Protein 1
Amino acid sequence: MRLLGGRYALEAPIGYGGMSTVYRATDETLGRPVAVKLYHPAASDIPRQESELAVLASLSHHSLVHLFDAGVDIDRRGRQSRYLVMALIDGPTLQQRVAQAPLRARHIGEIGYDMAEALDYIHAHGVIHRDVKPSNILLVNYGNASQRARAKLTDFGVALAGDIERMTAQGLTTGTAAYLSPEQANGGEVVPASDVYALGLVLLECFTRTLEFPGGVVESALARLARDPVIPPSLPEHWIRLLTAMTARDPAARPARSELVGALRQVVLTDSARHREPTEPLFLNDLPGEEQPKPDILEAIPDQALQRATALAARLFSAPIAVVSVVDHDRLWLKSYYGAEIEEIARHVDVSSSIVPLDDPIVIEDGRTDPRAKDSVLVTGPLGIRFYVGVPLRSSDERTIGTLSVLGIVPGTASETDIANLEDIAALVVAQLELRQEGIRNTAG
């Protein structure tokens, strides 16, 4: 049994994040169960981890998962891993509960009310969560047969607070496409109303039990820019009004902090008066044969290997930028290399909205004249990108899982040999991803 800090005994994994695994553990000093978020040794993005720690340490609210402790563990190979110790929530994620059976409107309202209070609190403290989704909402089972749904918001790994936006722009961007707001999907400014939009989609999904904007990153992002979510006309009128307001494409049209809390409080009161005796319990038994979720490709990203690969790709074309993008289900991760000559500008530019998964190599010799790129923000914006070359990242079973791209600020060309060399680098990246993924599976098992 692995013991962290001479105190926290790790037990079974209970969740997987992009760069970490969450374990059920025991605090042997106090004799209580806890949850430990242990970052993978290869996930050496220490500034991001420290920022998540700083955000969690500054927040204390009944609708947030409480942080108890933090530290750095050194394994038998001498590798350092940061860990966070948090309250263990006895209950499923909202994603798991929605997959089991329909939720009563009253329970959905109670969950929404708790989340509205959480957002009201963090927004008042200058924090934007940016990744509100069912798997980041934990339902609390106090074991007292209470029918009042209680929920807590977790995972502040990509939250904006202080200088986190600067660090994100330097290289690593993450988001869950199905719940991004239109301004996020369009590469615009992320504001507190972005969290309100995401919560609106979450509550809508609780009713429909389907994703409103399914598909890959690009497909999902384009869909919400083209239309509003479809609110079922069969819902009660007060829910239709609230969900329509929360998912307005204009951030200014969405309910503000106190308005959202008040609106959901009224929804809970209305639904409680209409249905005093619940016929469906909040917590259900686990589905037969339900298995622990397995880590996917995004949890396998070896940070140091990607830094070297992107730097090598950039040198190959004497270009200042290279990007590895990995797509898995509805999530996009980027790892970028920026040369010194454009690093200061690049810190303030989000390249995620312009990276498209490729099935074949593509070369754009001059973005200002090529119709495929001339309207891109990377070309027209402060970076002034002119040259682009990209090759697909293909897994061992020939699936396209991402792209290795090189971007230059002067026009350029790419020979067949250049493309072949870039494809070789891409193959090395994929090999590292799959090797690391297999290691995580073996460790978790």
Protein 2
Amino acid sequence: MKATGHGEEGRKLQNEGYPQKVPVEPGGYAGAPDRGKMAENNAADTGNQAGNLMEKILNRNNLNMAYKRVKANKGAGGVDRMQVDEVLPYLKQHGEELLQQIREGKYKPNPVRRVEIPKEEKGKVRKLGIPTVVDRVIQQAIMQELSPLFEVQFHEQSYGFRPHRSAHDALKQCQQNVNDGYVYVVDMDLEKFFDTVSQSKLTEVLSRTIKDGSVVSLIHKYQKAGVVESGMFARTDIGVAQGGPLSPLLSNIMLNELDWELERRGHRIVRYADDLMIFCKSKRAAERTLANIIPYIEGKLFLKVNRDKTAVAHISKVKFLGYGFYQYKGKCRLRVHPKSVKKMKDKIRALTSRNSGWSNEFRAARLAQFIRGWVNYFKLTDMKTLLKETDEWLRRKIRAIYWKQWKRVKTRYRMIKKYGLPEWKVHEMANCRKGIWRAAKMLNSVLTNKEIASLGYMSMADYYLKARVN
């Protein structure tokens, strides 16, 4: 049985297995409240919660639900390399010992395994932290109990990682704001948000609602658990690891402070995770709003505003959740932002690579999966013309794949002849010496649109006409 990070065995992981490195970020911010004062700043009455919340988290039904969710989400293993399929036997053997350590405050989470995901900007990466599977189960159990407590406090215009809310809801609210005359926005970018969250400030905010100190302490341990990257352990004195079940909830709890501050100042907002738009009626008002809110974000919440990416702009110049905006006959309409179009075409290029070694059936299935997901996400937009043009390009790429597969003249002759063309035409096409891409255009008369559809390849435009909601 693989060991996971609890008890003495877990503590060895940080001391023996990995060379030490300097902290990822410098220690807390000056002026952040201390733990004693945090407990006194209680803004919400949670009744009989004290001492009882931890037992709700560790309730068998809640833990079983957490395990099922983690198993359904799958995902890679953490620093102990335990996989999702291995966690149930482990919990059956060590579950009681694990729960006892948590109740006694002796449980010590493992550090997260850090991986880098490429961003859209060339050369930039997003750093994710993968907790161990056992820690994911515990975090999921915590999240399931905390979410109802905080959900009632969250701002109406916050849409990310919340039940029964989606990116589409956020975009529709943006449209409503623009239709009401709020055509200038502060497009706010928080620099490395998850990496710069003040743990002291977050603990203070948590303590206003969570009266069970053992729960606050356990969450704080997860923040301080550290990371392992390239075999090196690094402390995490600041920030929240992005990648665990708790991180989306913690980000909403932190940014809820900003939501209500903007509400108090009378601003219209739409926020999805750390993507924030503040709507104003004039450019001058938007510039004034930006200048006035930065001191609060950096001085009170101890977050960093990325001044290079934060901008005041007309709604037509803004990209939000992959969408762009434009106005037509006085109404706000949605379009696919050019950067999202480029990203889509890059994905199609990868799926239609002539060197992938995939079978035609597998490629068609992968393309269909991508098309359904992409169109369903962008179904609020006006993109009929875009998708018709993309379909033509995609079908030509598919024809190029088949032309390459019909490598020999004899094979091309046999395959083309099946489509009932005159003998002279079959002979001419089979002996074509053009390059693959030019020859693919010639195949229009053989691999027609209807024939390509019969081979299992989905049309983006046809699927969009069924899925669209605009």
